[in-house]
Amino acid sequence: xxxxxxxxxxxxxxxxxxxxxxxxxxxxxxxxxxxxxxxxxxxxxxxxxxxxxxxxxxxxxxxxx
Length: 65
Hints:
This protein is mostly helical and 65 residues long. It has helices at residues 3-16, 28-38, 43-64.
């Protein structure tokens, strides 16, 4: 892959995605990676799903109360 391809991909990613850096305790990264792999998901996909499901669950609790 040439330098131009990388620049184009970086530009596209910056335009389409927000980035969040997450810090976890030592050892937790491997637990997350292994869990995602067992579900045939990427770590990114697993984290996005976990966030989405938690937000939906929290909103459902708010609507009940």
